[in-house]
C-alpha cells in the first residue's frame, strides 16, 4: 500500500516530467484501482477512507502523514481532515485524495477524521505520538523487620502504556521470575517475603535491582543499588517489664525482635521517653539519655531509669528502636510502652496556711469554724490514703481531726467554744506525716468583730477579670484575699488560693481563667488578731455575665386565669445610679422543663423606676405554666441574676374547641372521627363529647395528660342516615366544656345498608290482598319489596313488588294454611355507596371492579291464613286414638289376669313326700298362701324356714344363708350340743332334679326337656317361698353369728378329701377324738327313693362316727306342678328310723341320747356303696356355693317344741313340697334344751338363677 501511495505521489508530479509512461500508470490506477481499493473504511463501504488504516503510533520526533481518499463519485474538494469539529489544512494529491503532513507533531492521542462533507460520512484513525519509557527517579525499598521487602516507584506520566518488570540479583545473577508490579494509584510496587518465589534474601547487606520498562516505542532498563540494612523498620521492643522499682527510680527490661538480632549486623539505636501522669501534657514526653546502651545484644536489654521527680506517681515509658544505618525518622519502630507507679514515701511538705483562713458562725456560746489551707498538688501526695492531720488545741485540750474525704480536702469543720484555738496541720499518707507542719492561730470570737470587712463587692468581666472593692479599715497590718471555684454553699470545696494585700488598698483587680466562675473572700489582719473570711455578697457581673451572690427574692400573689402579680426584694444595697431599672421576661414552658415553648413568642416587661418593687402581668393563657426571669438594668448594661427565676401556673378556664376534626371510613353502620386537642387546653381535659345535632352519642374519656390525636370509631349507626357531628372538649375539674357553634358541625350521611324489619303484613279479603307498612329505617332508597309465601309445607315462593301492597288469591292450591312474610330490599348503585359529607369527610369510593351490592332487610313476622283441612284426617286421628286406648286397656287386663293366675299357684308335692294321714289335719294347705305376708308361722317353725337374706361367705365367694338345704344343693352341717366331744362333721352338697349349673351337665340337659308350664309353676312356687322367707323377722343375719359357748359357725369349710362342708371346730380342750354320743331321737325321711334302692332290713352300724343322713342324687325327673288346694291325703307311711329301708352302706341311726342331737343332711351319692348306681358317670364336683341349702329348694316345717319335747319322735318331718323326690334326709335333735344346737344353715346356690 505504501508503494501504491508512493506511485500516486509520483503520479501527481508527472506533469512536470511529461513522461508518457507515468501518465499511463496514473490513468490506470485512477480509473481501475482507486474505485475498488479506497471505497472502504476499515472494510466498510462509506465512500471515504483514511490511510494508513487503524491505530497509528508515531514516535516522538517523527513526522505524521495521513491520506484521505474517496471514490470516483466525489472529488477531493468534497473531503477534509478534521479533529473534532476543527478542519485541518491538507493538500490535494489528486481528484479523490488529500494528504495531511505534520513534520513535528506534539505528544498526543488524537482521533483524525476524513470527512466527506457531501455524504457527511467519516472515517477515523487514532494517532498516538509518544516516546519510549524514561527513567524512574523515586525508586525506593523498605524492609519491615526483615520479614517483608517492599520496593516501589511512581509510574511515569506517559500517553502510552508502560509495562514494568523488576528483579534482583544475587552474586551477580538475576533471580527469576521477575516481578510484575502491582499498582495503587500512581504507585507501582513489588513485594517479597520469606515464603514468596523468589524468596526474600534477608541476610544480604546490599540489594541489587534491575528495572525493565517498555512501550510501543521502545524500552528502558535501570539498575538500583540499595543499602539493605539502612531501609529496615524494626518491630517495636516487646516483653517490657519492671524488674525493680523505687520511689524515684525504676529498672526496666525489654527484648528486640529476633530478625533484628540475627540479621541486622550493624546494630540498633534506642530512644527512651517517659511521661508523668496528671502532670505532663498528654503530648509531652521527657527523653532519657541512652548512649550507654549496647547497639547489639542478644540478651534482654536493661536500663535504670533514675531521677523520677515524684514518689507514688504513675509513669508511662515508651521505647523506640531503629537500625544504626537508618538515617531517616521514618525508619524508627513503633514504640513499646510500660506503665508503672513508683513507691510511696512520706509527704515532702505540709499544706500552706495563712492568717485569717477561717470562717465562722456563732450560736449560743459556741461557734462552728471552717479552717482552710492550700492543698498540696496531687503529685506531691507521695503515697496512698493521702489526707491532712489536724491538731486542735483549746483550753488545754487537744484533739486530732481529719477532713472528710467525700466533701473536701481543703478544710475541716470544728465545733469549738468562743475562746482562742491553735491549729496545726501536717500532710499525711500511708507512710506517715510530713516532717514539717503549718500553724494558724484563731483569736477569740470577740476579737474578730472589730476587724470585720463590710461591703465586699465583686464585679466580674467577660474576659475573666474580676474587680473587687470593699470599705477600708484603719490600723491593720494587711488584708488576705481568698478565692476558689464558685459553689452555692460559700465553702471552698475545691483548691483554695490566697494572696496578701496592702492595708491601704480598698480594691483589687485579678485575672483568672475564664473557664470557671470564682467566689472571693477577704480578711483583715492585725498582729495575732484577724477577722476571718468575709464572703462577697453583692456579686455583679459585667458584659452579659450572670450576677452571682446578688440575692433577689421573687414572690407572687395568687394567679388568676389570665394575670400574675410579681413582687421582689434585694439584699444588696448598691450605690445610687448603678441600677437604672428592671427587666422581666416570661414565656410558657414545655411541660415540666425550663425550655420556653417555641410556638409562643417570649414577652418582656420593662420597669424604668428602680424604686418600684412589684408589677402585674396580664393577657396570659389560662392553665399555662410560665417562667418569669428577673434582671437588672445597670449602668454596665442588663445583668441577669442567679436564681432570679420563678415558675407560675395560671388557673383553669374553658378550653377552646378541638382542632382538625375529620371523618373517614364511612360505612352503613359506623364511621371514624378524629381530632387534635384544643390549641389552648386551659385546664385538665378529661373527656371529649361527640354530638349529633343536639344529642350526645359518644363520650371519649381521656387521661388528663393525654395530648395525642384522638381517633374514635362510632358503631351502631343507622344506614343511609344524615348525621351532623361536632366534638366538644370538657375541663373536668371546673366542669366547663368548649362552646359549640353551628359552623363547627360536620354533615355526613352513612352508606346504603339493609332496611329495618317490617311489621307483619295485613291480609285482606274481598278482594284478596296483602298490605304492609314501609320500614321505620329505610337504610336506602327501598328499591324493592319481597313477599315470601309458604303453602303448607311446600317450598317458599318469592314475589317482588315496589308497592306497599300486593293483590293475590289466598289459599289457592293450599290444603291447610299458608304464611306470608315481607322484607324491604336496597340496591347500592352509587359510586360512594350512598354516603355524603362535607369537605372534612373522606367518602368511601367503589373500585372499578366492584359490583352493585344488594342489602335485603330481615323478614317480617309471618301472617298466617287458615284454609280448609285435609279430607278425613281428623276422623282418622280420632279412630287411631280410640283403638290405642282399647289396646292399652285389653293389655292391662290380660297382664292383671296373668298376675292373678300366677298368684294362685300352689306347690304340689311329689310322690313319697306327701303328708301322713294322721298329720293331715295339722296342716291345712288349702288355706296357706305364700303371698299372705301377714300370716306367719309360729316361731318354732320359723326357725326351720329358709332365710335368703342371711349370707355366709366362703374363702372364694359370699352367699346367702338359709335355714335348710334345697334339692338343687342339699347340704347339711352337723350340729352338736357337746362341742367338747364332737369334732368337725363333714357334709357334701347334692344336686336335685331342677338342673343347677353348679351340678352335673346331664342334669342340666334333662331339665331342658321339662314342660314349660311346669317350669313356670316351679318358679312361681319358689318365688312365693322366697317372698315368705324375706318377710319373716326370724330370717336375719343375726341368727348365724358365732356362739362362743357352742362354737357354731356361719362360714362353711369344705373338706378337700371328702367334699363335705364342715362346720368350724368348737373350742375343744382336748384334741383327742372321742366317741360321739347317740342322739335321743332320730327320724329319717325319704323323698321319691326308688324301690330297688332300699330294703326293709336294718343295717348294723359299722362305725362309731356320728350318724348322718344322706340325699341320693338320681336321674333328674320332671316335677309335676303342685296345687295345694287339690292335694289329697297320701297313704299312711311310717317314716320312723325302725321302718326305713335298710341299705348296706347307709349308716344306722344313732342311739337316743338326752344330751346329744343334731340335724344333718347329706347326699346319698357320697356313700361308696351307692356311687355305682348313679346313672350319670360324671364325677361329683365341689359346689361353687358355700354348701348351704337354698330357701327355694327346701323348707323344714317341723314344730321345734315337738322335737325338743321327745314324745313325737316317731312323727315324720314335713318337707318342702318343692323338694326333690330323690332327697333323703335324716333329722336328729336333742331333747335337752340347754344343749340344743339346732340350726338350719341356708345359702342360695350361685349357679341357680331365680325366676321372677
Notes on the protein architecture:
With 1252 residues, the chain is mainly beta. The strands form 20 sheets. Strands 54, 55, 57, 58, 59 and 66 form a six-stranded antiparallel beta sheet that branches. Strand 69 (950-953) and strand 70 (958-961) form a beta hairpin. Helices cover 9% and strands 34% of the residues. This is Cytokine receptor.
Blueprint (SSEs and pairs):
Elements: H1 2-12, H2 14-17, H3 20-37, E1 40-41, E2 44-45, E3 48-51, E4 56-59, E5 64-70, E6 79-83, E7 86-88, E8 91-94, E9 97-102, E10 108-116, E11 121-130, E12 140-144, E13 148-154, E14 163-170, E15 173-174, E16 182-184, E17 187-193, E18 206-215, E19 218-227, E20 232-233, E21 238-245, E22 250-255, H4 258-263, E23 268-276, E24 286-288, E25 301-305, E26 314-323, E27 336-341, E28 358-363, E29 366-372, E30 387-394, E31 397-401, E32 411-417, E33 421-429, E34 432-433, E35 438-442, E36 457-460, E37 465-469, E38 478-485, E39 497-502, E40 507-511, E41 518-526, E42 529-530, E43 534-535, E44 538-541, E45 552-556, E46 564-570, E47 579-588, E48 603-607, E49 614-617, E50 625-634, E51 637-649, E52 659-664, E53 671-676, E54 685-692, E55 695-701, E56 710-714, E57 722-731, E58 736-737, E59 746-749, E60 762-764, E61 769-771, E62 784-791, E63 797-801, E64 805-807, E65 817-828, E66 836-837, E67 853-856, E68 863-866, H5 873-903, H6 939-942, E69 950-953, E70 958-961, H7 1001-1007, H8 1012-1031, E71 1053-1054, E72 1061-1062, ...
Parallel strand pairs: 4-11, 12-20, 36-44
Antiparallel strand pairs: 1-2, 3-5, 5-9, 6-7, 6-10, 8-9, 10-11, 12-13, 13-17, 14-15, 14-18, 16-17, 18-19, 21-22, 22-25, 23-24, 23-26, 26-27, 28-29, 29-32, 30-31, 30-33, 33-34, 33-35, 36-37, 37-40, 38-39, 38-41, 41-42, 41-43, 45-46, 46-49, 47-48, 47-50, 50-51, 52-53, 53-56, 54-55, 54-57, 57-58, ...
Helix pairs in contact: 1-3
Transmembrane segments: 872-893
Keywords: Membrane, Receptor, Repeat, Transmembrane, Transmembrane helix
Biased composition (Basic and acidic residues): 957-971, 1005-1019
Amino acid at each position: 500500500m505504501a508503494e501504491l501511495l508512493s506511485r500516486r505521489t509520483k503520479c501527481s508530479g508527472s506533469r512536470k516530467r511529461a513522461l508518457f509512461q507515468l501518465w499511463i500508470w496514473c490513468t490506470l490506477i485512477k480509473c481501475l484501482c482507486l474505485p475498488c481499493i479506497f471505497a472502504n473504511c476499515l472494510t466498510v463501504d462509506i465512500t471515504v477512507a483514511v490511510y494508513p488504516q487503524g491505530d497509528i503510533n508515531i514516535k516522538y520526533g517523527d513526522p505524521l502523514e495521513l491520506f484521505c481518499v474517496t471514490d470516483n463519485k466525489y472529488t477531493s474538494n468534497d473531503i477534509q481532515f478534521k479533529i473534532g469539529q476543527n478542519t485541518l489544512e491538507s493538500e490535494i494529491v489528486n481528484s479523490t485524495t488529500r494528504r495531511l503532513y505534520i513534520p513535528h507533531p506534539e505528544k498526543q492521542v488524537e482521533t483524525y477524521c476524513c470527512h466527506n462533507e457531501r455524504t457527511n460520512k467519516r472515517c477515523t484513525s487514532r494517532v498516538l505520538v509518544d516516546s519510549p519509557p524514561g527513567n524512574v527517579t523515586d525508586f525506593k525499598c523498605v524492609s519491615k523487620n526483615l520479614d517483608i521487602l517492599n520496593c516501589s516507584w511512581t509510574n511515569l506520566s506517559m500517553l502510552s502504556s508502560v509495562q514494568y518488570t523488576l528483579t534482583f540479583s544475587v552474586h551477580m545473577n538475576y533471580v527469576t521470575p521477575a516481578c510484575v508490579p502491582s499498582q495503587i494509584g500512581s504507585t507501582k510496587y513489588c513485594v517479597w517475603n520469606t515464603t514468596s518465589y523468589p524468596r526474600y534474601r534477608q541476610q544480604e547487606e546490599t540489594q541489587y535491582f534491575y528495572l525493565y520498562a517498555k512501550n510501543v516505542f521502545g524500552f528502558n532498563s535501570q539498575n538500583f543499588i540499595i543499602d539493605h540494612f539502612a531501609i529496615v523498620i524494626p518491630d517495636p521492643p516487646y516483653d517490657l517489664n519492671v524488674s525493680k522499682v523505687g520511689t524515684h527510680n525504676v529498672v526496666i527490661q525489654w527484648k528486640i525482635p529476633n530478625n533484628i538480632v540475627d540479621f541486622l549486623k550493624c546494630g540498633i539505636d534506642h530512644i527512651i521517653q517517659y511521661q508523668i501522669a496528671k502532670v505532663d501534657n498528654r503530648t509531652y514526653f521527657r527523653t532519657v539519655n541512652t548512649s550507654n546502651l549496647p547497639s547489639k545484644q542478644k540478651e534482654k536489654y536493661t536500663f535504670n531509669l533514675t531521677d523520677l521527680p515524684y514518689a507514688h506517681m504513675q509513669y508511662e515509658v515508651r521505647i523506640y528502636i531503629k537500625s544504626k544505618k537508618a538515617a531517616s525518622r521514618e525508619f524508627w519502630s513503633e514504640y513499646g510502652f510500660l506503665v508503672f507507679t513508683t513507691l510511696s514515701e512520706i509527704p515532702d511538705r505540709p499544706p500552706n496556711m495563712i492568717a485569717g483562713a477561717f470562717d465562722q458562725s456563732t450560736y449560743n456560746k459556741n461557734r462552728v469554724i471552717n479552717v482552710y489551707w492550700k492543698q498540696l498538688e496531687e503529685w506531691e501526695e507521695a503515697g496512698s490514703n493521702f489526707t491532712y492531720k489536724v491538731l486542735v488545741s483549746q483550753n488545754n485540750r487537744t484533739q486530732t481531726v481529719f477532713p472528710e474525704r467525700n466533701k473536701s480536702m481543703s478544710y475541716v469543720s470544728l465545733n469549738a467554744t468562743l475562746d482562742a484555738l491553735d491549729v496545726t496541720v501536717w500532710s499525711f499518707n500511708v507512710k506517715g506525716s510530713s516532717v514539717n507542719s503549718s500553724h494558724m492561730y484563731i483569736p477569740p470570737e470577740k476579737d474578730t468583730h472589730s476587724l470585720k470587712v463590710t461591703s465586699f463587692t465583686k464585679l466580674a468581666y467577660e474576659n475573666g477579670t474580676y474587680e473587687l472593692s470593699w470599705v477600708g479599715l484603719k490600723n491593720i497590718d494587711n488584708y488576705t484575699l481568698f478565692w476558689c471555684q464558685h459553689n452555692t454553699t460559700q465553702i471552698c470545696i475545691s483548691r483554695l488560693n490566697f494572696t496578701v494585700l496592702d492595708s491601704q488598698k480598698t480594691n483589687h483587680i485579678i485575672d483568672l481563667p475564664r473557664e470557671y466562675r470564682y467566689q472571693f473572700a477577704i480578711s483583715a489582719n492585725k498582729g495575732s488578731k484577724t477577722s476571718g473570711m468575709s464572703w462577697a455578697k453583692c456579686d455583679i457581673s459585667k458584659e452579659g455575665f450572670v450576677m452571682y451572690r446578688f440575692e433577689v427574692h421573687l414572690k407572687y400573689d395568687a394567679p388568676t386565669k389570665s394575670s400574675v402579680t410579681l413582687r421582689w426584694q434585694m439584699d444588696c444595697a448598691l450605690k445610687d445610679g448603678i441600677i437604672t431599672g428592671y427587666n422581666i421576661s416570661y414565656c410558657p414552658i414545655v411541660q415540666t422543663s425550663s425550655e420556653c415553648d417555641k410556638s409562643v413568642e417570649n414577652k418582656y416587661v420593662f420597669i424604668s423606676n428602680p424604686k418600684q418593687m412589684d408589677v402585674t402581668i396580664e393577657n396570659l393563657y389560662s392553665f399555662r405554666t410560665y417562667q418569669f426571669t428577673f434582671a437588672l438594668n445597670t449602668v454596665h448594661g442588663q445583668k441577669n441574676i442567679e436564681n432570679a427565676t420563678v415558675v407560675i401556673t395560671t388557673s383553669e378556664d374553658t378550653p377552646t374547641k378541638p382542632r382538625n376534626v375529620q371523618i373517614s371510613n364511612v360505612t352503613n353502620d359506623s364511621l371514624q372521627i378524629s381530632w387534635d386537642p384544643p390549641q389552648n387546653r386551659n385546664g385538665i381535659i378529661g373527656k371529649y363529647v361527640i354530638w349529633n345535632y343536639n344529642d350526645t352519642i359518644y363520650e371519649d374519656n381521656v387521661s388528663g395528660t393525654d395530648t395525642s390525636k384522638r381517633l374514635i370509631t362510632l358503631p351502631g349507626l343507622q344506614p343511609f342516615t344524615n348525621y351532623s357531628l361536632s366534638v366538644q372538649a370538657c375541663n373536668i375539674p371546673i366542669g366547663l366544656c368548649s362552646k359549640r357553634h353551628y359552623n363547627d358541625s360536620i354533615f355526613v350521611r352513612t352508606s346504603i345498608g339493609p332496611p329495618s324489619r317490617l311489621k307483619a303484613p295485613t291480609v285482606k279479603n274481598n278482594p284478596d290482598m296483602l298490605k304492609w307498612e314501609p320500614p321505620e329505617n329505610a337504610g336506602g332508597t327501598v328499591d324493592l319489596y319481597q313477599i315470601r309465601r309458604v303453602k303448607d309445607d311446600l317450598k317458599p315462593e318469592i314475589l317482588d313488588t315496589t308497592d306497599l301492597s300486593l293483590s293475590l288469591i289466598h289459599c289457592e292450591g293450599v290444603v291447610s294454611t299458608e304464611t306470608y312474610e315481607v322484607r324491604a330490599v336496597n340496591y347500592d348503585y352509587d359510586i360512594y355507596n350512598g354516603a355524603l359529607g362535607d369537605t372534612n369527610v373522606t367518602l368511601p369510593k367503589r373500585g372499578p371492579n366492584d359490583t352493585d351490592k344488594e342489602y335485603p332487610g330481615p323478614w317480617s313476622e309471618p301472617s298466617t291464613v287458615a284454609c280448609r283441612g285435609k279430607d278425613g284426617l281428623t276422623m282418622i286421628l280420632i279412630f287411631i286414638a280410640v283403638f290405642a286406648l282399647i289396646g292399652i286397656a285389653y293389655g292391662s287386663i290380660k297382664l292383671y289376669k296373668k298376675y292373678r293366675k300366677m298368684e294362685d299357684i300352689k306347690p304340689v308335692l311329689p310322690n313319697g313326700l306327701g303328708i301322713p294321714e294322721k298329720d293331715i289335719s295339722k296342716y291345712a294347705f288349702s288355706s296357706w298362701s305364700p303371698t299372705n305376708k301377714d300370716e306367719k308361722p309360729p316361731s318354732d317353725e320359723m326357725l326351720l324356714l329358709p332365710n335368703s337374706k342371711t349370707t355366709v361367705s366362703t374363702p372364694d365367694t359370699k352367699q346367702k344363708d338359709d335355714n335348710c338345704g334345697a334339692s338343687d344343693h342339699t347340704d347339711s352341717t352337723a350340729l352338736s350340743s357337746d362341742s367338747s366331744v364332737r369334732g368337725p362333721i363333714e357334709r357334701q352338697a347334692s344336686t336335685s332334679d331342677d338342673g343347677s349349673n353348679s351340678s352335673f351337665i346331664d342334669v342340666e340337659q334333662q331339665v331342658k326337656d321339662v314342660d314349660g308350664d311346669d317350669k313356670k309353676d316351679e318358679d312361681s312356687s319358689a318365688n312365693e317361698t322366697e317372698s315368705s322367707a324375706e318377710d319373716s323377722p326370724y330370717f336375719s343375719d343375726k341368727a348365724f353369728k358365732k356362739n362362743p359357748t357352742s362354737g357354731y359357725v356361719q362360714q362353711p369349710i369344705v373338706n378337700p378329701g371328702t367334699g363335705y362342708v364342715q362346720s368350724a371346730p368348737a373350742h375343744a380342750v382336748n384334741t383327742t377324738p372321742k366317741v360321739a354320743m347317740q342322739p335321743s331321737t332320730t327320724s329319717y325321711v325319704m323323698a321319691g327313693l326308688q324301690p330297688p334302692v332300699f330294703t326293709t332290713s336294718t343295717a348294723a352300724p359299722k362305725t362309731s362316727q356320728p350318724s348322718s343322713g344322706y340325699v341320693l342324687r338320681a336321674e333328674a325327673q320332671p316335677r309335676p306342678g303342685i296345687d295345694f288346694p287339690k292335694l289329697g291325703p297320701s297313704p299312711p307311711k311310717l317314716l320312723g328310723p325302725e321302718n326305713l329301708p335298710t341299705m348296706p352302706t347307709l349308716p344306722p341311726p344313732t342311739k337316743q341320747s338326752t344330751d346329744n342331737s343334731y340335724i344333718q343332711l347329706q347326699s346319698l351319692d357320697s356313700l361308696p356303696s351307692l356311687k355305682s348306681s348313679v346313672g350319670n358317670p360324671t364325677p361329683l364336683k365341689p359346689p361353687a356355693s358355700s354348701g348351704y341349702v337354698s330357701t327355694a329348694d327346701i323348707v323344714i316345717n317341723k314344730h321345734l317344741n315337738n322335737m325338743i319335747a321327745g314324745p313325737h319322735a316317731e312323727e315324720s318331718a314335713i318337707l318342702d313340697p318343692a323338694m326333690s323326690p330323690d332327697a333323703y334326709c335324716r333329722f336328729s335333735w336333742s331333747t335337752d334344751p340347754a344343749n340344743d344346737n339346732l340350726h338350719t344353715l341356708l345359702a342360695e346356690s350361685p349357679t341357680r338363677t331365680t325366676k321372677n
